């Protein structure tokens, strides 16, 4: 390897530099990220590289580890004008689906972990989430509005089958008649069809399936542990057939990778029963700038330069633009073309041009927990 201080050291984004830091193929089998570099807050940088020594045994694939954490609150608030909600819930930190492009990856650095392979293999489950939610809804000053699920990590990622945190949260919202929206890549959402059907009768829920591509092979490279595109379309059909409003999210639109599929995805989703649609162009905050290039180097080295060039054309020549009003759709001719293609296809197919609203007038405030009620009585 060339020393970092060498005047002829390759750029961090050069194919040679990327190749040097890739994790062994056996180690990342079934995962989305290609490296496991340290998070940006760590004192010492850590990257996988080949030191030239021959191992007697092959590296074993990463196993998924789940750690319980005890949050003080479960509802997260935001004031972003780019998104149609001001509160959300994420039952888990990290996501086993392994989508290489996930904009939530950099948050794992706050846990002292890598946004790379750690993000999809070292997960955190929020203990007591349902009890926290019930307590927050019971607060006298709480005013109901739509709670969004799936804004950071997928509420129906594989570990939900075992931990059932999302299910427990839905049960609280069902009893409280509180509105919610769900974005997911998983047909596991159909497990909770009994709750969703009941809430949909009162206009309290809608579910959006994220469909990034119709190409099963490409989906496996982009989202290695997420259900196939066909399973997601089947979920839209099942939800719609059960009376649960369903939609599709074409996100992210990635230059030179899936940007040709916008119209086809919208058509297939509409045929399955989706009536709302949306899109988001690729976002590369912080560590994702490297990870995008690493993924391209592994899977599509011949498209790397073109994909990066088009991506930067949407961000004023930079890798990322975080300004509100620009970060979701981008700017420039390429971003404009993506937007017009989406709008024209959605209008032609018959998608709703406005988002459906959910009811808040049916909210039933939960009774305070027995321990809290006792504490209040002791004051008198």
General description of the model:
With 380 residues, this protein is an alpha/beta fold. It has a single domain (15-50, 63-349), classed as Alpha-Beta Horseshoe (pyruvate-formate lyase- activating enzyme), CATH 3.80.30. It is 33% helix and 12% strand. The protein has 13 helices and 10 strands. It has helices at 15-21, 117-121, 129-138, 160-163, 165-176, 193-200, 216-222, 229-241, 262-272, 288-299, 304-313, 333-349, 370-377; strands at 65-69, 76-77, 87-89, 92-93, 122-126, 147-149, 180-184, 205-210, 246-253, 276-281. It has a 7-stranded mixed sheet with strand order 2-3-6-7-8-9-10. α9 runs parallel beside α12. It is globular, with a radius of gyration of 22 Å. The N and C termini lie far apart (73 Å). Residues 1-9 and 373-380 have low confidence and may be disordered.
Give short descriptive properties of this protein:
single chain, seven-stranded mixed β-sheet, 13 helices, three-stranded mixed β-sheet, alpha/beta, disordered N terminus, 10 strands, 33% helix, pyruvate-formate lyase- activating enzyme, disordered C terminus, 380 residues
Short description:
By secondary structure, this protein is an alpha/beta fold.
Distance between the termini: 73 Å
Structural classification: alpha/beta
Range of strand content: 5-15%
CATH architecture field: Alpha-Beta Horseshoe
Work out the oligomeric state of the chains in this entry: single chain
Mean pLDDT: 90
Strand runs, count: 10
CATH class: Alpha Beta
What are the low-pLDDT stretches, counting only 5+ consecutive residues below 50?
Answer: 1-9, 373-380
Largest sheet: 7 strands, mixed
Give helix and strand order, one letter per element, not per position.
HEEEEHEHEHHEHEHHEHEHHHH
Report Rg.
22 Å
**Total of domains:** 1
Shape: globular
Helix content: 25-40%
- Tell me the strand order in the biggest sheet: 2-3-6-7-8-9-10
How many helices in DSSP terms? Answer: 13
